[in-house]
């Protein structure tokens, strides 16, 4: 079972378990993490933007061109930014830490 840590802008850590096949956005919603996801995972907005811990980022599949285009709209985009709706959990993903950017608080 993948272990996920969501880090609020104030530094509060929320350690939760995910299920393979769920998206990171689904996990956030299941655990009342304040990530909007206005387009319901249709990848037509950047409101589920998260910043992935550098160590874990290299183990994720690369974002495709469509995700990169939407990330261009994300406030505070970083090199390790991703859309939570596009990260699907698997048994290979464990101890994933992501920061929730300030605009969601």
Descriptive account of the structure:
With 105 residues, this protein is of the alpha+beta class. It has a single domain, classed as Beta-grasp domain (Ubiquitin-like (UB roll), Roll), CATH 3.10.20.30. The chain contains three helices and five strands. The chain has helices at 24-30, 54-57, 65-71; strands spanning 3-7, 13-17, 49-52, 81-83, 96-99. The chain has a five-stranded mixed beta sheet. The N and C termini lie far apart (28 Å). The model has no long low-confidence stretch (mean pLDDT 92).
Describe the structure concisely.
This protein is an alpha+beta fold.
Question: Which percent band covers the strand fraction?
Answer: 15-25%
Low-confidence stretches: none
Number of helices, counting only DSSP H or I runs of 4 residues or more: 3
- CATH homology superfamily: Beta-grasp domain
Sequence of secondary-structure elements: EEHEHHEE
Portion in helices? 10-25%
CATH class: Alpha Beta
The whole-number mean of residue pLDDT values reads 92
Total tally of structural domains: 1
What global shape is seen? Answer: globular
CATH architecture: Roll
Using DSSP, what is the number of strands? 5
